[in-house]
Amino acid sequence: MKLRNPPVNSLSLELLTELVIGLEKLENDKTFRGVILTSDRPGVFSAGLDLTEMCGRNPAHYAEYWKAVQELWLRLYPSSLVLVAAINGASPAGGCLMSLTCDYRVLADNPKYVIGLNETLLGIVAPFWFRDSLVNTIGHRASERALQLGLLFSPAEALQVGMVDKVVPEDQVQSTALSVMSRWMAIPDHARQLTKIMMRKATVDHMIKQREADLQNFVNFISRDSIQKSLQVYLEKLKQKKG
Amino acid sequence: MKLRNPPVNSLSLELLTELVIGLEKLENDKTFRGVILTSDRPGVFSAGLDLTEMCGRNPAHYAEYWKAVQELWLRLYPSSLVLVAAINGASPAGGCLMSLTCDYRVLADNPKYVIGLNETLLGIVAPFWFRDSLVNTIGHRASERALQLGLLFSPAEALQVGMVDKVVPEDQVQSTALSVMSRWMAIPDHARQLTKIMMRKATVDHMIKQREADLQNFVNFISRDSIQKSLQVYLEKLKQKKG
Amino acid sequence: MKLRNPPVNSLSLELLTELVIGLEKLENDKTFRGVILTSDRPGVFSAGLDLTEMCGRNPAHYAEYWKAVQELWLRLYPSSLVLVAAINGASPAGGCLMSLTCDYRVLADNPKYVIGLNETLLGIVAPFWFRDSLVNTIGHRASERALQLGLLFSPAEALQVGMVDKVVPEDQVQSTALSVMSRWMAIPDHARQLTKIMMRKATVDHMIKQREADLQNFVNFISRDSIQKSLQVYLEKLKQKKG
To answer: Which residue from C73, C153, C164, C210 has the fewest beta carbons nearer than 10 Å?
Structure first.
């Protein structure tokens, strides 16, 4: 599955919807047992959530957008498919979150390909299910530090902290992901799926229980003048960088 | 305490019952403060649960057997004794579980002495209290990967992931276990026991609460035709290997 | 903030009260955003709880003292301030606990500057919120071992197990703490504070819920003849050491 939304694979409402529908189809098609998540455009895996969907719109739009983000996570995290992330570019925020839902993460060894949940740098807060995905991967202490500081890890740091499972030269990301996939495919599917659910069910159940509250919380938070302002400042900076 | 059930120290119903009774006696005898768990037959610590008890029998037998497995864990995991595992052989599945209940694990440095919860390789699923014992030892992420892939770790890998605490040359396993034991014995017993219970109580309480459901779940799962079939195939392979 | 209670910065009732009041003031003064916790007397960060407050007094005094210990933790652990520990001396028991509540720990590289929750060595048990602070920092398995054995880690060991974040030469502890502080100060305050609370709220809520029971538990435990006796023996030893 190749992420494609030029220029930086932002998770626009449209892309999110496509991803959710695509994943649903693959889950229901018994001929598919695994998916490699990668980017169509080496250099950026995904820039994460699309700030233009979260800035200068109305609350109804924010709600619709956030529901789609929740849906994607709920589709990915407990997926019965084997998910391997072939991370061939930078992977901040939502891009990192997608990686964290996978069963295995391969990252290209390029110092520009940073990965992390950097929400605080934008003045916003990663929701609790981003936190849970991270804590389940790198533990409580490393998460506390990474989330507060909005750390973006280099490949070497990401490997050391456990944010990714393997770092390989850039031209070997896809082949490594494929060989990882065949390793996971060798396990009896039913036993592997039940085991995966056993590991992730509590986290998913907690999210589902808090889903509505999380939605309200997001809409209220993002609608605040102060947050809108800091997002606008951030977007302006991004534009100037490109200009 | 030396495990002895030739040829591979499978945890037969008989051995389980003996272990539980033996441990109960030691717990109640105030002259005993610690136990070193090891194998009478270097080469195999324990091959784990006895597949012949789980294959081709009736549901009542499966229930009786599973109760005995639960009993052993409930006796070992919150034991007031200091438990040190002197792992002098391969230690898959139930053998690994017994090690995980100990306070300290010493493994002989022999590449054949692998250790891990490899249930998925047999098409079955480690129950939640196997998972909890593992997560408490090596953390969530490493457990997720190890349990899904049914990983059997070499001594070097086991040390690195935290599955064991020390790897020593084969002829030093017993002496190392003894010196570890005397280190733990130096701590005031009452304070140490209360501290151990504080660390393990939540896990034990959760298991006790789910005990009946877990029993039903096991009997239903293991009675399925598909599971019986895959166990038979596995047993056939084992026989041919030996033959 | 410099700890000062000669000779070893024991957390006397007086010092605890001062610390709580001081922290409350800083929290409410919007011109303060962070605090570096260090010792006025290099060599001892803090010897921890004051045994003379817990030995040979009446239950009412034990209750008053324990309430103050609880207050300090409840003030430190969820603090909206950035807390950096500049650990310039030994840091057993309560001294270690204070460090664990911080956002970042810098330890001077001196083999005498050990750190850990060594309660079992005194025949007592670290309460559950000490345990939670430790588990959140170094994980379940390392905590289980450290708490049962009452381990005091050397700087190198403390770094390896994750008990501290950085070990630096003794004369660089303060400057390192300052540069760490400015790194944390660079993060938008509001987002950082919400993120910190998100990480620590469950632990704090659990403690508040169990606060009364924990108080009763402490007073009962410490009032026991056997515990009083072992504390007296320990205090005698300390006096002889000095003498």
So the answer is: C210
Pair A113, A91: CB distance under 8 Å: yes
Q: Is the pTM of this model over 0.90?
A: yes
Using DSSP's 3-state secondary structure scheme, residue C174 falls into helix
Per-residue 3-state assignment (H helix, E strand, C coil) for B76-113: HCCCCCEEEEEECEEEEHHHHHHHHCCCEEEEECCCCC
| C151 DSSP 8-state letter | -
Length of chain B: 243
Residues of C involved in catalysis? 49, 94, 118-119
What H or E segment, with its residue span, contains residue A158?
A: helix A155-161
Instruction: Measure Cα distances from B120 to A41, B59, C221, C235 in Å.
Output: 36, 22, 46, 55
Beta carbons of B120 and A187 less than 8 Å apart: yes
Tell which residue, C49, C238, C200, C53, has the closest CA to residue C127: C49
Confidence of residue B239 (pLDDT cuts 50, 70, 90): confident
d(CA C49, CA B236): 63
Chain B nearest CA to C150, separation (Å): 8
Chains in contact with C via at least 3 Cβ–Cβ pairs below 8 Å: A, B
CA distances from C178 to A142, B194, C29, C108 (A): 21, 40, 20, 14
Find out whether B73 and B101 touch, Cβ atoms under 8 Å: yes
Contact state of C139 with A144 under an 8 Å Cβ cutoff: no
In this complex, the residue of A139, A162, A194 whose CB is nearest that of residue B125 is: A194
Predicted ipTM? 0.94
Output the CA torsion C182→C186→C191→C193 (10° steps): 10
Position A7 pLDDT exceeds 80? no
> Quick one: CA dihedral B85, B36, B9, A193, positive or negative?
negative
Tell me if chain B has a CB within 8 Å of the CB of C124: yes
